[in-house]
Write a structure and sequence with these properties.
11 helices; eight-stranded mixed sheet; disordered C terminus; disordered N terminus
């Protein structure tokens, strides 16, 4: 069986508490502060009531216009470049194959998740449409323009999938239905499938069933935290946020019943204080239910309540990525694996030769998410540089080349004899995106 030789951790691999992983005891979020009355619930935006004009690119030096879903949606920088509403390029990849649409309101998300740049506690810091989210800006675009472009492109669209991402807001359920109806009225979901990234806190079984009836084919729940304790500390009462672990699992079980096998899943962020064994047992639970796991590497989002904490050490992340791939796609079970007294993987449960073949293929280290059109184990939702800078890629948004495999092997401490990763192989983090447009369009 395959075992990892453990030597003293390199400084670049240190996580919270000086370990080579992010320990629970060290990953404590800050306490959210009080929000001035004149900044609550999008008050500044609503008071000035500046009308939106076309595409809005986030800019902290200008008051955000009064934009609301379902008329407006936000999307990632990569999606905006791919759609053609924002000029630019992405380093080493042709942007993204998933058109992720995020609901938007001046009031913003009413939850207060500790790791999220969109959290409620930032009301005094930045207007909602100006807040960073998974490392990049999210431009706001008229929904009608989005539909026009996709309908015009037809089979030539570069996208493999569209995803509607809900937030915690009183109108989120109703507006998700409106956005989905606007999409399916002109675009056949059989040719460009639709995923839902849900907000379980405001949903019941009938809401889940309605989205399936209207054409969505995959339903996901952003558990994010791998254990109830971490969930409560980062998403629930610990940060004055409304979410609960039990409600999220209730809606996930509804999705299993309504959408069916392989048509539902959960997002999980690795490195917020769970052990590797804990997150992998969660992944096994999802597989046993008939679902999939979509993993993110913890990155300290600027402005969040966890921005003072370290990103997930790469050796921890690579071990979990590799083990997750084996559970999801290679019929390996977590019971076949072995863990040390800190919960770290020390055996992946398959022979070395088979493990090396999977590492060399590289797919295990690509972004995980809803499937696209390339292969069952290759995600449409590639989220370029959403959880890391390109100088130290966490989730690869493109097929790995030899230099990438060498780097992954070094991070796993599984270098081949006579082969090593050279420092000169690092990517240029300053060159990950090349904006070609002014900040406001």
């Amino acid at each position: 069986m395959s075992c990892i030789k453990r030597e003293s951790a390199l400084p670049s691999r240190e996580g919270a508490g000086g370990n080579d992983f992010n320990a629970f005891s060290a990953m404590q979020p800050r306490t959210p502060g009080a929000i001035p009355a004149d900044a609550r619930n999008g008050a500044r935006v609503k008071t000035h009531n500046v009308p939106p004009e076309g595409v809005y690119l986030p800019n902290n030096n200008r008051l955000a216009p009064h934009m609301r879903s379902p008329e407006y949606v936000q999307m990632s920088t990569a999606a905006a470049i791919t759609l053609g509403v924002m000029p630019g390029t992405m380093h080493r990849c042709s942007c993204t194959r998933c058109l992720n649409l995020l609901l938007t309101y001046p009031e913003g998300c009413r939850a207060n998740c500790a790791y999220c740049g969109l959290a409620r506690h930032r009301e005094a810091d930045r207007d909602y449409a100006d807040r960073n989210f998974i490392r990049v800006d999210w431009p706001a675009v008229p929904m009608a323009e989005v539909v026009d472009i996709i309908a015009r492109d037809g089979d030539k669209t570069p996208f493999h999938r569209m995803c509607i991402s809900m937030i915690t807001h009183p109108r989120s359920d109703e507006d998700t239905v409106s956005v989905l109806k606007a999409w399916t009225a002109r675009i056949d979901p059989a040719s460009l499938p639709v995923s839902i990234l849900s907000n379980p806190t405001t949903m019941d079984r009938a809401d889940v069933a309605l989205l399936k009836d209207l054409g969505a084919d995959i339903f996901t729940v952003a558990l994010d935290a791998a254990t109830p304790e971490i969930f409560d500390r980062t998403r629930g009462k610990g940060v004055d946020s409304p979410h609960s672990w039990s409600k999220y699992w209730e809606v996930l079980e509804h999705a299993r019943d309504i959408f069916g096998k392989e048509r539902f899943g959960a997002h999980i962020i690795v490195g917020m204080g769970e052990t590797e064994e804990e997150v992998l047992r969660l992944i096994q639970r999802l597989v046993d239910m008939g679902g999939h796991s979509h993993m993110f590497c913890f990155f300290p989002e600027k402005g969040s309540l966890m921005d003072h904490l370290p990103a997930t050490p790469r050796d921890q992340w690579r071990r979990v990525q590799l083990a997750r791939y084996l559970i999801d796609y290679a019929q390996v079970r977590v019971e076949h694996m072995r863990f040390d007294d800190q919960g770290r993987v020390i055996s992946f449960g398959i022979p070395d030769a088979a493990l090396d073949d999977i590492i060399d293929k590289g797919t295990a280290f690509r972004t995980s998410g809803c499937p696209g059109k390339e292969a069952a184990d290759v995600s449409a939702c590639d989220r370029p540089y959403g959880d890391s800078p390109p100088s130290n890629v966490a989730s690869y948004p493109f097929p790995l080349q030899d230099v990438d495999i060498r780097k992954v092997r070094q991070q796993l401490e599984r270098e081949r004899p006579g082969e090593c990763y050279e420092a000169g192989d690092d990517l240029d983090s300053a060159n990950w995106t090349k904006p070609l447009a002014p900040r406001i369009v």
